[in-house]
């Protein structure tokens, strides 16, 4: 018997998807500059469109936006990275000492619970030895990872790619964005083109709503936490604040990690002046209030349709399969898959498979 047309189409698109995944896996080491360029172009396309409405040509608008974006990136890097690297180096060096101090402050508070459970209290010497051992393991792991990557030449390739290839990719994608979209639209299968366009519009709304909105949320929180923790006098406040803001796109994780680091540092630094610890806690409470009541509702909203657990799973899966490149594309892919799944669930509920033959 011959193959049905529907089965043939499914086999064809399944083979295309498998080929794309295989290609991504094989070229994973060199994809980072191109993926970053695509992400940046996606973010900047609305700005180019607005300049076009101001009667600039697409090429001129793209040139202006690309130059301003590169200058802004260079300026931010030059202003932030030197003090940031200095604080990171000092934080890594001093981490065992601060961990011991923080545990020394916390231990008396846990004394009743320890007595009830019958645990022996660890000595300060044991805490210091344990902290030093874990810090050494962490530095050794990081050093080994950097060395392994550098030996393969991936680090140099990606660094040069980010510096030189990404701006070029961003420029050409921005300039030819409409042509690229038209070319893709022209290759859609005719009998499903309208459905695919509808799904693409919904996917774009979900991706834009989350990616652009969440990027602004992370930038705002990182700035707020960095400045706030520095103003209350917390050592390494800039580093901790920027880390908390940068990973705020992972639901609950950014806040938890940032609060633990900040409060741990505050416990090691401020007591017996407990007001400093209170000030650090207030900074995070204000940050969470700002995010929950203003930033996320205004910048991200409820139209995204991405559950926090689905986002965390997508980030872990993308990172496991494709490294940092996978993390960058994880949320867009999750958004598209979410739209497709909701579409097929709706189709299923309209079909006889769900309704049954008696309800037809």
Please specify the SSE layout and strand pairing:
Blueprint: H1 5-26, H2 32-53, H3 58-117, H4 124-152, H5 154-175, H6 177-186, H7 193-231, H8 237-246, H9 253-269, H10 275-300, H11 308-349, H12 352-355
From the structure above, extract its key features.
360 residues, mainly alpha, globular, transmembrane helix
Short structural summary:
This protein has 360 residues and is an all-alpha fold. It is built from twelve helices and no strands. The longest helix is centred in the N-terminal third of the chain and has 60 residues, at 58-117.
Please describe what this structure looks like.
- Keywords: Membrane, Transmembrane, Transmembrane helix.
- It is found in: Membrane.
- Pfam families: AI-2E_transport.
- Belongs to the autoinducer-2 exporter (AI-2E) (TC 2.A.86) family.
- This protein has 360 residues and is mainly alpha-helical.
- The chain has a domain at 24-111 and 120-187.
- Helix content is 84%, strand content 0%.
- It has twelve helices and no strands.
- It has helices at residues 5-26, 32-53, 58-117, 124-152, 154-175, 177-186, 193-231, 237-246, 253-269, 275-300, 308-349, 352-355.
- The longest helix has 60 residues, at 58-117.
- Residues 148-153 have low confidence and may be disordered.
User: Strand fraction band?
Assistant: under 5%
Q: Give the C-alpha Rg.
A: 25 Å
* Separate helix tally: 12
Main sheet summary? none
Helix content class:
over 70%
Distance between the termini: 30 Å
Mean pLDDT: 75
Keywords: Membrane, Transmembrane, Transmembrane helix
InterPro entries: AI-2E-like
Transmembrane segments: 7-25, 31-49, 61-81, 154-174, 215-236, 242-267, 274-290, 310-341
Protein name: AI-2E family transporter
């Amino acid at each position: 018997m011959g193959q049905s047309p529907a089965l043939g189409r499914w086999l064809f698109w399944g083979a295309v998807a498998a080929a794309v995944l295989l290609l991504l896996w094989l070229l994973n080491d060199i994809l980072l500059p191109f993926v970053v360029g695509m992400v940046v172009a996606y973010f900047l396309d609305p700005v180019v469109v607005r300049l076009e409405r101001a009667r600039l040509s697409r090429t001129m608008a793209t040139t202006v936006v690309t130059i301003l974006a590169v200058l802004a990136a260079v300026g931010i890097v030059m202003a932030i990275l030197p003090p940031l690297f200095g604080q990171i180096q000092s934080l890594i060096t001093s981490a065992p000492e601060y961990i011991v101090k923080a545990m020394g402050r916390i231990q008396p508070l846990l004394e009743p619970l320890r007595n009830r459970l019958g645990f022996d209290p660890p000595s300060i010497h044991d805490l210091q030895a344990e902290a030093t051992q874990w810090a050494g393991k962490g530095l050794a792991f990081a050093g080994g990872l950097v060395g392994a990557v550098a030996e393969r030449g991936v680090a140099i390739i990606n660094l040069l790619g980010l510096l030189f290839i990404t701006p070029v990719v961003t420029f050409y994608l921005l300039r030819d964005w409409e042509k690229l979209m038209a070319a893709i639209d022209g290759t859609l299968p005719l009998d499903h083109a309208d459905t695919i366009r509808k799904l693409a519009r919904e996917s774009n709304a979900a991706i834009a709503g989350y990616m652009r909105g969440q990027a602004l949320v992370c930038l705002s929180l990182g700035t707020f936490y960095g400045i706030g923790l520095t103003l209350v006098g917390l050592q390494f406040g800039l580093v901790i604040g920027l880390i908390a803001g940068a990973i705020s796109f992972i639901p609950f994780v950014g806040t938890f990690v940032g609060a633990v680091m900040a409060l741990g540092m505050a416990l090691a630094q401020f007591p017996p002046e407990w007001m400093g610890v209170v000030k650090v806690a207030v900074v995070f409470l204000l940050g969470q209030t700002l995010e929950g009541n203003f930033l996320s509702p205004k910048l991200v909203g409820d139209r995204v349709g991405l559950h926090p657990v689905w986002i965390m799973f997508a980030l872990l899966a993308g990172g496991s399969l494709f490294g940092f490149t996978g993390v960058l594309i994880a949320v867009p892919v999750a958004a598209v898959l979410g739209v497709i799944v909701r579409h097929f669930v709706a189709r299923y509920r309209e079909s006889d498979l769900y309704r049954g033959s008696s309800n037809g």
